[in-house]
Amino acid sequence: MQYDGTCYAGFQRQKDVVTVQGVLEDALGRLLKHPVTVRAAGRTDSGVHARGQVVAFNTISSIPPGRIPKGLLGLLPDDIIVDWAGEIALDFDPVKDAVSKTYCYRIWRGKRMPVMAHRYVLWYPGGLDYQLMVDEALDFEGTRNFANFRALGSSAKTTVRRVTRARWVQKDVGGQKNVLWEFWVTADGFLYRMIRLMVGTLLDVGRGYLPAGTVRDALKAAESRNGFRVGKCAPGKGLCLEKVCFP
Amino acid sequence: MQYDGTCYAGFQRQKDVVTVQGVLEDALGRLLKHPVTVRAAGRTDSGVHARGQVVAFNTISSIPPGRIPKGLLGLLPDDIIVDWAGEIALDFDPVKDAVSKTYCYRIWRGKRMPVMAHRYVLWYPGGLDYQLMVDEALDFEGTRNFANFRALGSSAKTTVRRVTRARWVQKDVGGQKNVLWEFWVTADGFLYRMIRLMVGTLLDVGRGYLPAGTVRDALKAAESRNGFRVGKCAPGKGLCLEKVCFP
Question: Taking CB atoms and an 8 Å limit, are A118 and B81 in contact across chains?
Fold first, then answer.
């Protein structure tokens, strides 16, 4: 499934606020005629988007799974789209069975921001040292302790994650060279706000506010259970869950 | 200036609803420290976007015009961006002085809709005869009477407009061939909901609901002051004011 997370307080159902899970479960409940609880591969945060979210749920409905996406079209708002549905083993768990998740963080570097991208891209026209950010990002790759790249409120048992890719890509848009910068990161899992703290740190290094080597030092400090000052959390709007891989 | 029109009841200031003009004038008033009234080249309708809107206003402020875009950044919401400002002759009128206005209507033809485009593109996966729509659109070109392509509520003195371009363009997106269809239309001016009625008619011809020749017949009927059944008004979200030309 895909969603534009701008208007949602994240994926996970909460009281008194509109969440993707809440809206999706309500629509599924109406379609399948019984209460539905979904489990999602990635619990995206407030304002974060998804192009490749995967959810699972149990149903006793006789509606063929292939009909569910079309059935949901009229029941879901325009900013949530279910692309595909199918039957899977009862013990399938989209969180535990996921081998990797890939997110992308997008930054617009031009002086003129295309307004149609304002919900999906962070506008950052200020000076940034691209090569420094590329080098710094590579230090994230590997099996590392990300304790210094998580926000309070995280309940994860371990803070060790295996990051298999942490790369910047520059793209041309509308004849403008290298105007869109994308940070692609793949890991077996992420801590609370981990990617936004990674991006915030890379931006602070890129603009010269934090020294080169901050990433390496912050990861090293975590190994000896020391805190380390990293960058601040980048806004959620630039982040998108792109893909979840299963065996 | 550019704006995402999704959350606005059109450009023009109205009581009790949020409009682009209202929000812009409030921001300009705060920046320039006196009430401001703007005049816009195109009075876009509810939900319609703009990439190339042009507005004019009078001010007694001593702020250099070149500083206005940056000054407005913090005062305007993210869905309205002023790209440029400069001084112009006191008698400049963005409506009367405009030589032409160009709009684009976008339709997504793929089976899978990219959710990040849901505010800016109409999703229309059904069967459409592209060549028929291309031929039919050409009939709009010329100096014609568009009385049958306007909605009630129009107060225009004349319904004759000179359309210099009414063309479809197919575009590839993300490896998918011809998945985005764009209808580009340029004229010296447009009647109330004229473009959306033009697009609605082309879609109805393309899907076989109205016969080929509907456009030609509807324009001809207007010359003898006869009504003619055209297609229904296409949703505002697919429409964008792209460019206004001045001498």
Answer: yes
B4 touches chain A (CB under 8 A): yes
* Model confidence pLDDT, tens digit, residues A138-186: 999 999 999 999 998 777 789 999 999 999 999 999 889 999 999 999 9
Which residue shows structure tokens 């379609």? A31
Kindly state whether residues B144 and B226 are assigned to the same domain: yes
Q: How many CB atoms lie within 10 A of CB B211?
A: 9
Distance to chain A for B80, nearest Cα, Å: 7
Q: Using a CB–CB cutoff of 8 Å, tell me whether B184 touches chain A.
A: no
For residues A207 and A128, what is the distance between their CA atoms, to the nearest angstrom? 5
CB contact under 8 A, B116 and A4: yes
ipTM, two decimals: 0.86
pLDDT of residue B153: 77
Asked whether residue B94 is domain-assigned, the answer is: no
Is residue B114 assigned to a domain? yes
The whole-model pTM stands at: 0.92
In a domain, B214, yes or no: yes
Question: Distance between the two ends of chain A, CA-based, in angstroms?
Answer: 19
Total residues belonging to chain B: 247
A45 is catalytic: yes
- The structural domain count of chain A equals 2
Proportion of chain A above pLDDT 70, given as a percent: 100
Nearest to B81 among A3, A83, A113 (CB): A113
Residue A135, helix vs strand vs coil: helix
